Amino acid sequence: MPIWIYPYYQFLRVMAATFLTLLAISLVATTSQAQESYAQVQPNEELTGAGSMYPEILFTETLRLFSNANPNIVVIYDPIGSGAGVLALQNGTVDFAVSSAPLEAVLPQEDNSEAGNEPTQKTGKLLEIPITAGMLGILYNIEGVGHLKLSRNALAGIFDGSIQYWNHREIRMVNPDLHLPKLKITVVGRSDASGANFALSSHLTSVENTWSEMTASIWPPKNFPKDTIYVPSSSQVAAKLADVNGSIGYAPSAFGSTLGIPMALLENQKGNYVAPSLNAGEAAIEAISTSGDPLAVEQILDPESPFAYPIVLFFWLVTADVYSDADTGKDVRSFAEFVLSGQARGASISSGYIPLPSNMRTAAKKLSATIH
Question: Please, which of 98, 139, 277, 299 could form a disulfide with 51 given CB 3.0 to 4.6 Å?
C-alpha cells in the first residue's frame, strides 16, 4: 500500500469533522447576519422552515442571496429530515418544508391517496413545488482503491448483504485493474426518514430482482445487512465513512465532491459506468423536457440515456396554498419565487445539483404564484 494512503484518510477524517464544524458556524453566521438586517428593517417578518438535510450544502448560499435581496425577511431553516419537516409544516410549527422525497412517500400511509391535498394548521393545502434535482452518490472508503465501478448486481448485493467482501467476484469482474482486498464491507445507512433512503430503495427495487419484492421507503430498507451502521444525517454518513476502512454509504453527490470522498461509477440501464456529474445528471432528467405535465414527474427510476447517472432525486419546497396570516403567505411566495430564480439556479449548479428543465421550472413558478 502506498505510504500516502493512510495519512490521506486521516486527512479526510479531519476534513469531514472540519466540514461539520464550519457548516454549523456558517449556518449560525448566516442566521446572525440575517437577524441583524431583520432587526434594522422589520423585526416582524420571519419565516421558519424545516426538512431535508440537502441544504447543508446548498441552502447556506441560497439563504444568503435571499437575505441580500429581501433584507426585511429572516429565514430560519432547521435541517431535521424530509419526513420530520413535512410533519412540522402539517402541525403548523413551521411555514414551509423541504423534502427530497415526494409527498406520497413522506406522508403517513393513510394519507397517501390524498397526497397534495392535505389541510395544514396554516389553513391551506399542501403544494409540492420542485426546486432542483440531485444525484445520490455511492460513497466509499477503501484505502488504496480509487475509480471503483459497481454493476447493478454488485450494488444490490452490497446493500442486501449477499456480497460481504470487497474482493467478491461480482466486484472484481468489472474492476480488473484494481487490487481489491479481502476486506469486510461495512454499510453506513441513514437511520431517519430521508429522501436518500427513498432514492436508493426506489432505484434498487426498480432494477434488481433481489430487491423486487421490497417497497421503496423513506425509512432504512429492511433488507440492509444486519451490521449496518446507522446515522441520522448525510454529514454523519460522510464522517463515518472517513472513520471506517472498507465502508460504503450514500448521500447527495454534493457531499462527496465537497469533501473529496470517492464515489463509485454506477452501471446505468445501457450498461455504461457513469460517475456523478452535471452532464450525467442532466442526461438523467432530460426526458422531462418533453413531458406535457412536468409537475407530475416525481421519480426517474432508471434513466434511459446512455450518458445518464442512474440514481437521481428531486427536491421540493412544500408549502400551504393559503396561509391564515396574509403576510406569511406573501413572504413564503417571495421565498418560493426566489428559490426558482436565476440566482438560486446558479447556486444550485455550483453546489453540485442539477437545474430543473425549463418546462418544469416554468410550471413550478406558476404553482408558486398561487401561494397566498
Answer: 98
